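Worked Example 4.2. Consider the chain below.
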Amino acid sequence: MKKMEFHGPHHINILSSIFGSLLGDSHAQKRFKKCRINLQQASSNREHLFKIHHLWSSGGYCNELKPREKNKDREK
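Applying the procedure from the previous section yields the following structure tokens:
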């Protein structure tokens, strides 16, 4: 699925999930003229992360590939 260009207005479910994620462990990066949001959750919240990803990918906000799982203990 090709990425769609969004400039708004965005659906309230999309906005709520973005704001909620940014208030949690996620962060956003400005990349050229776009923004990338990196979702991070504890492994106990894995299903919640996949639900957010499904919401965003079904709306064309991100690709359909499932998020990669990283173990923070291994990265240290």
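The chain is about 40% helix and 15% strand. Residues 30-62 form one domain. Compare this with Example 4.1 before moving on.
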